TrEMBL record:
This is Cell division protein ZapE. NCBIfam families: ZapE. Pfam families: AFG1_ATPase. Keywords: ATP-binding, Cell cycle, Cell division, Nucleotide-binding. GO terms for biological process: cell division. CDD domains: AAA. It comes from the Bacteria. Transmembrane segments: none annotated. Residues 50-189 form the AAA+ ATPase domain. Signal peptide: none annotated. Gene3D superfamilies: P-loop containing nucleotide triphosphate hydrolases (3.40.50.300).
Length: 338
C-alpha cells in the first residue's frame, strides 16, 4: 500500500475511533475504495494521471457523507468541497459577477474550483432542469481538466432528475458520470442517524419540541425584516446571532435557497415555529422545508423546531410527500425530542 493511500486509510480509521464509531463491513469496503482516490506519484516533470473518481450512492443515514468527509479531511490534495444548495448559490452569484464575459459560466466554475485536484460534491441530487444543465457544464469542465471527483448521493446515476418529463435533459450528465466515475452502492439496513444518541454539538444538539422553548416566543415588538438582494423578508426576531422564524415565513412564502444559504452564515442558531404536518402544507412549502433542513445540516447549525405535532407524527405524513423527504426524515432523527 502506497504511503498516500495508507495515510488516507489511517486518517479515516483514526477519525472513526475518536468518534466511537465502529465501521461495518460495507463501510470498511468503501474506505478501501476511497483510499484509491489518494494522489499518485508522478515522474519528474510529468503530471500523474488523476485517480479515477467515485460516485457513492445509497439510502439515507448509511454513512456516505461521514466517510466521504473523513476522506476529504485526510486527503493531502488541493481540494474543494461543495454541497448541492450552496454550490448553485455560489455559481449563480459568481456568474452574475462575470455577466459581461461571454464565458461567464465557465469563469464562475473556475472561480469555485480554483486550483483543486479533488472535487467532493456532497448530497448530489437533481430535480430541476435548470440545475441539470448547470451540473452537466460542471462535469464537462472537471473531466476535461482531469480533476478527481468524489460524489455522494441517495440516487443511482440513472435515477437523477427522475421526473420522466425532464429526465432526458440530464442524460448527457449521467453519461459523463458513468463514463468517468466508478459507481459504488453503499448497502446496509441500518440508518445510523436514527440510532444516534449524541446530542452534544451542531445540528444534532438541536431539538424538536411541542411547546415553546423556555425563553419564550418573540412578541410583536421583536418582529423584524431581513433584506437580501433588495428583497424583504419578515421574521419573528433576531436575538444575538439567533434567527426566529415561523414555518409560514420561511417555507410557505417565496423564499429560495439563496436566502437560506445567506442566513445560515449570518445566524449561528435557529428556531423555526409553527411547523405543520405535510398533509396540510402545499408542495412548494414542503420542498422548501426539505431544502432548509439540508442546508441546516450541511452547515451544522443547532436548530429548535417547534411544532404542535410530535416528530413521529410529523414524519408519518412527511416521508411520502416529496422525492427527498426520506433524507429529511433521516436527518431529523438526529434531534433531541421532548
Amino acid at each position: 500500500m502506497s504511503s498516500a493511500r495508507q495515510a488516507v486509510v489511517s486518517g479515516i480509521e483514526a477519525r472513526a475511533a475518536g468518534a466511537g464509531i465502529v465501521l461495518d463491513v460495507e463501510q470498511q469496503r468503501l474506505v478501501a475504495r476511497l483510499a484509491d482516490l489518494a494522489p499518485r506519484r508522478s515522474w519528474p516533470g510529468r503530471r500523474a494521471p488523476a485517480p479515477r473518481g467515485l460516485y457513492v450512492h445509497g439510502s439515507a443515514g448509511r454513512g456516505k457523507s461521514w466517510l466521504a468527509n473523513a476522506f476529504y479531511d485526510a486527503s493531502p490534495s488541493p481540494k474543494v468541497r461543495v454541497h448541492f444548495h450552496s454550490f448553485f448559490e455560489e455559481l449563480h452569484r459568481r456568474a452574475h459577477e462575470h455577466r459581461d464575459n461571454p464565458a461567464a459560466l465557465t469563469q464562475a466554475i473556475a472561480d469555485v474550483l480554483g486550483d483543486s485536484d479533488l472535487l467532493y460534491f456532497d448530497e448530489l441530487h437533481v430535480h430541476d432542469s435548470g440545475d441539470a444543465r448547470l451540473l452537466t457544464r460542471l462535469l464537462e469542465y472537471v473531466f476535461a481538466r482531469q480533476i478527481t471527483v468524489l460524489a455522494t448521493s441517495n440516487y443511482a446515476p440513472h435515477d437523477l432528475l427522475p421526473n420522466p418529463i425532464w429526465h432526458h435533459i440530464f442524460e448527457p450528465g449521467i453519461a459523463l458520470i458513468t463514463a468517468h466515475l466508478d459507481i459504488y452502492h453503499l448497502t446496509g439496513t441500518t440508518d445510523y442517524r436514527a440510532d444516534n444518541h449524541s446530542h452534544t454539538a451542531g445540528f444534532a444538539s438541536g431539538r424538536w419540541v411541542t411547546s415553546p422553548p423556555p425563553e419564550g416566543l418573540p412578541d410583536r415588538s421583536e418582529h423584524t425584516v431581513l433584506t437580501v438582494g433588495g428583497r424583504r423578508f419578515p421574521v419573528l426576531a433576531e436575538r444575538e446571532g439567533q434567527l426566529w422564524v415561523s414555518f409560514t415565513q420561511v417555507c410557505d412564502s417565496p423564499v429560495s435557497t439563496i436566502e437560506y444559504v445567506q442566513w445560515v452564515h449570518q445566524f449561528r442558531t435557529w428556531v423555526i415555529t409553527d411547523i405543520p404536518t405535510f398533509d396540510t402544507a402545499n408542495a412548494e412549502a414542503q420542498q422548501r422545508f426539505i431544502n432548509l433542513v439540508d442546508i441546516l445540516v450541511d452547515t451544522d447549525r443547532p436548530t429548535t423546531f417547534v411544532s404542535p405535532h410530535t416528530l413521529p407524527a410529523f414524519l408519518t405524513y412527511a416521508t411520502t410527500a416529496r422525492p427527498d423527504a426520506f433524507r429529511m426524515a433521516s436527518r431529523l432523527h438526529l434531534l433531541r425530542t421532548t
